[in-house]
Amino acid sequence: MRHVTDPLPSGVSDLPPAGWSGRERLVLVVLLLILGGLVGLRAATRRADSARTPLDLDVLVIHAAGLRADAATTEALANDLDFDPSDMLLWINAFSQGTDAERSARALLEGDLVRDLGVGSSPLSLQRRLSDRGWHTVLVDDRGATGSRLRDGFDTAVTVQTAEDAAGALAAHWPTGSQPPAFAFVQLGFGEEPLHSDTTEAYVLQERYRLRLRRIRDVVRAVARAARSERPQLVVLMGATGLELGEHPDATEVPYDELVRVPLLLGLRNADGLPTGTYPALVQSADLAPTLLDLLDLRPRAERDADGRERVGRSLEPHIHGWRTGPVHEHLVLFGVEHVAVRSADWKLVAPIDPPLAPRRGGARLYSLQEDPGERNDLLSGGEPGPVSEALFAILTDRFGAAQAAR
Question: Same domain for 251 and 381?
Answer without folding.
Answer: no
